[in-house]
Amino acid sequence: xxxxxxxxxxxxxxxxxxxxxxxxxxxxxxxxxxxxxxxxxxxxxxxxxxxxxxxxxxxxxxxxxxxxxxxxxxxxxxxxxxxxxxxxxxxxxxxxxxxxxxxxxxxxxxxxxxxxxxxxxxxxxxxxxxxxxxxxxxxxxxxxxxxxxxxxxxxxxxxxxxxxxxxxxxxxxxxxxxxxxxxxxxxxxxxxxxxxxxxxxxxxxxxxxxxxxxxxxxxxxxxxxxxxxxxxxxxxxxxxxxxxxxxxxxxxxxxxxxxxxxxxxxxxxxxxxxxxxxxxxxxxxxxxxxxxxxxxxxxxxxxxxxxxxxxxxxxxxxxxxxxxxxxxxxxxxxxxx
Length: 337
What we know:
Elements: E1 6-18, H1 24-28, E2 35-47, E3 51-55, H2 62-69, E4 77-82, E5 85-86, H3 92-95, E6 104-107, H4 111-114, H5 121-133, H6 137-150, H7 167-179, E7 185-189, H8 197-214, E8 217-221, H9 225-231, E9 234-239, E10 242-248, H10 249-254, H11 259-266, E11 317-320, E12 323-325
Parallel strand pairs: 3-8, 3-9, 6-7, 7-8
Antiparallel strand pairs: 1-2, 1-4, 4-5, 9-10, 10-12, 11-12
């Protein structure tokens, strides 16, 4: 990926939360307090028009990373460059009114929770257009109708309230609200998790079609690895605040290099091949509070761990074209995984 084609570049981003009774105040007073390493040195890029999946267990830091990228949370350190400009320099409390704000929009996990029950579908789609784009009158009405048409939401439903809509219809309203501002990056946080299985496929097909027609980039956060494989060009695998593997979706699913990725993929029915068994991770995970910087964070659960892993923290290394993994026992490119 060339620099000119990069839309989002996350560089050395960390988010540490001080714990204890005093928290931030104790730190300001120079007292040592334990720190929760929610996101700890994350680097990745998303190209223009590219769809990138972010996967990992609950508690691995995905939600915190999303909040950092959408600038509702300030990073402890690092850069978040959007179209070359470091958004991390803009405090989260000021980002809502920043000129870069319309370029990054989000589709939330549960459309019922994310829609105001007192607003009609029309009002829900119009609200960010009024607030962030300054539209009103006929221009506002036309943009709302355009967004509704793009997600195949009938105009007759624009006057209805959330409780009068089905789950799939509410999902379409949430997507229309996000794309109405014509963003360049759409962050999707488990966008189909709250929907019936029969509706999920329809919404995923819609998202794939919108990406092609509108030329947006996606950051797609999901626990559903089958969905990620179908919708994403590249995949990021996150574990305890760090990216442990990233690569083209096809290659990562066919030849995962990190033992944690192999364990995740083994849970997909049919993924590991006939007769293959699921890899069950035993033991307790390392605490994200003040983790040992010289120790692999997967040690203790890793079925392939060895003595060297207790004294070295692996970094992401190339293991194939556009494919990186952070493991001391990486097989050679093209070797058996």
